[in-house]
């Protein structure tokens, strides 16, 4: 085999290997955040939303997510789960602040019938001074929930003290990037801070 023929064969093999990699990888670029994830995230999560803030103003995701944000869907009448989770998120935000990272905790109500702008504003302010409280119409809340693939279902509303069943994930969203990962209830503030810092650092590279 001549050198030219050998070189041509080598190029063909490399092209074939590259093509196989491109196909098996789905043609997608390497995940810049792979080192930060604890598991795979299936499907598309997150996206545009339009809700109402504590001042009664209609805001979009672009208005709210101006820096790395931890988004939680819950409701102000929640007896234990929501207060625990949102305080945990606030603790993670404080740990990150100590390291020089600025992160916003966001609370989205999935109980628009009771959670007025004042209600989400008071709830959020009691949890953390930076926490953004959001509510909206039933349609706005449903659209935001569907974007983040959350679940909620109100119990018998004839009882004024009705409870709302809901999922309890916290979503990490970065400006210009969007959703990057989620945290389960078992995650500690320290674990959340560590992983969030990893994502922020990776996004800056």
Automatic annotation (TrEMBL):
GO molecular function: metal ion binding
Binding-site list for Cu cation: 78, 82, 166
Cystine pairs: 78-82
InterPro entries cross-referenced by the UniProt entry: SCO1/SenC (IPR003782), Thioredoxin-like_sf (IPR036249)
Cross-referenced SUPFAM superfamilies: Thioredoxin-like
Keywords of the record: Copper, Disulfide bond, Metal-binding
Disulfide bond keyword on record: yes
Homology family: Belongs to the SCO1/2 family.
PANTHER family with a match to the protein in the record: ELECTRON TRANSPORT PROTIN SCO1/SENC FAMILY MEMBER, LINALOOL DEHYDRATASE_ISOMERASE DOMAIN-CONTAINING PROTEIN
Name of protein: SCO family protein
Species whose genome carries this gene: Thetidibacter halocola
């Amino acid at each position: 085999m001549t050198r030219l023929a050998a070189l041509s064969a080598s190029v063909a093999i490399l092209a074939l290997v590259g093509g196989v990699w491109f196909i098996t990888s789905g043609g997608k670029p390497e995940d810049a955040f792979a080192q930060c994830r604890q598991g795979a995230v299936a499907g598309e999560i997150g996206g545009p939303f339009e809700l109402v803030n504590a001042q009664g103003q209609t805001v979009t995701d672009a208005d709210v997510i101006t820096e790395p944000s931890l988004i939680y869907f819950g409701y102000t009448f929640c007896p234990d789960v929501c207060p625990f989770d949102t305080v945990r998120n606030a603790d993670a935000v404080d740990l990150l602040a100590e390291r020089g990272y600025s992160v916003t905790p966001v609370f989205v109500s999935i109980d628009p019938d009771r959670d007025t702008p004042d209600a989400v504003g008071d709830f959020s302010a009691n949890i953390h001074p930076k926490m953004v409280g959001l509510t909206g119409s039933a349609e706005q809340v449903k659209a935001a929930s569907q974007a983040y693939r959350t679940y909620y279902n109100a119990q018998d509303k004839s009882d004024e003290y009705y409870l709302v069943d809901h999922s309890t994930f916290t979503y990490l969203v970065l400006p210009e990037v969007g959703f990057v990962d989620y945290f389960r209830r078992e995650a500690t503030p320290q674990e959340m801070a560590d992983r969030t810092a990893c994502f922020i650092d990776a996004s800056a590279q």
